[in-house]
Amino acid sequence: MANSYSFARLWLTRLAVIGVLVTATVVALGAWTRLEDAGLGCPDWPGCYGSITVPLSETAIERAALLYPDQPLVAEKAWPEMIHRHFAKTIGLICIFIAGFAFAAARREKNIPVKHAVFLLALVCLQGAFGAWTVTMKLFPPVVTGHLLLGFLTFTTLLLLVVRLSPFLRASGNRAVASLLPMAVFATAVLVAQIALGGWTASNYAATMCTDLPICQDGWIQQMDWREAFTIHTYAGTTYEFAPHLEWEAKRTIHVAHRIGAIVATVVLALLALLVWVKGAAPRYRRFAVILTLVLVAQVSLGVANVIFHLPLAVAVAHNFVALVLLQVLATLTFSLVQERKRA
After folding, report:
1. Which structural domain range is residue 217 located in?
2. What is the DSSP string of 242-307?
């Protein structure tokens, strides 16, 4: 029975780890696609100009021109979009395998997180729908932002599945650190809000509206339009590429909100890292504190570099990816504290 237990858990863990790696790749590819302004590199879905991949033959290119005369094929933008889509489809297949394997394993042993696997599969299906709507609704900002957040949630759900299946974050008996659970939950909520602001900034093409530090150029306080910046407009059926529906004051307001959010998130996460270091005498929590601090410093440095160097692609993609890593540190820390609270 022990061999059956370890075999099922081992292979379910392997599938989840593969899912984590593929999803990390998809998140990075999604950031690359968005920052290359290639979100509409293929105007249809799930294909590309009527083909299963970027049109390559002369016949396929001619067909693409006939199907979409107002949106000429630009291969440099179509390729990032299609590469991103193909990797995303792979996540769907992996999650189907995970759910199926979890159901099969649960027949032979206890403590297989079947509900977790089913939730993951439903989440991936929803994420796929948002991916389709991102294209068919022509980069409508609420959909693009939702697509980003669901991508982060999918990665977090996969990672937590790995954590639940592994023995590394079982309760250590540290009652003092368990009291930090509310603070960890609050810090996670603050970070998610900041990630949402980042998604809103990117989807509304506001990433370059402020070129000075720490907040914006002189006079920014008099150039705000908070109401318009965060109004959820009714879908108009037109393209939202480059956010033509917003004036520059609204875009600047969005950027300023993201900068202010970054300051707040940095203070909250730094305080959490300090408290974990002080209360978590066990080596595990000292490591959490150090890792959280290092990733936070890296993220702040990348944010500053984006401003100084005017949003270079590599730095912008890294900034997006490190935000994902930061969320995973908080998610695993929170999971560990939940285990401590249960034991306490």
Report:
1. 170-344
2. T-TTS-HHHHHHHHHHHHHHHHHHHHHHHHHHHHHHHH--SHHHHHHHHHHHHHHHHHHHHHHHHH
Q: Within the chain, where are the H helices?
A: 2-35, 58-67, 75-106, 114-136, 141-165, 175-178, 181-203, 226-229, 248-279, 283-308, 313-343
**pLDDT, position 170:** 76
The catalytic residue positions are: 81
How many domains does the chain contain in total? 2
Q: Within this chain, do residues 67 and 186 fall inside the same structural domain, yes or no?
A: no
Angle, helices 2-35 vs 181-203, to 10°: value is 40
232 and 246 co-located in one domain: yes
| Of 167, 187, 202, the domain-final residue | 167
Please answer whether residues 39 and 136 qualify as being in contact, where contact means their C-beta atoms are separated by less than 8 angstroms: no
Instruction: Examine the domain organization and report whether 313 and 175 are in the same domain.
Output: yes
Question: What's the pTM?
Answer: 0.92
211-251 confidence digits (pLDDT tens)? 999 999 999 999 999 999 999 988 988 899 999 999 999 99
Domain closes at, from 132, 152, 167 = 167
Residue 49 is which amino acid?
Answer: Y
**Per-residue pLDDT tens over the stretch 92-151:** 999 999 999 899 888 888 888 999 999 999 999 999 999 999 999 999 999 999 999 999
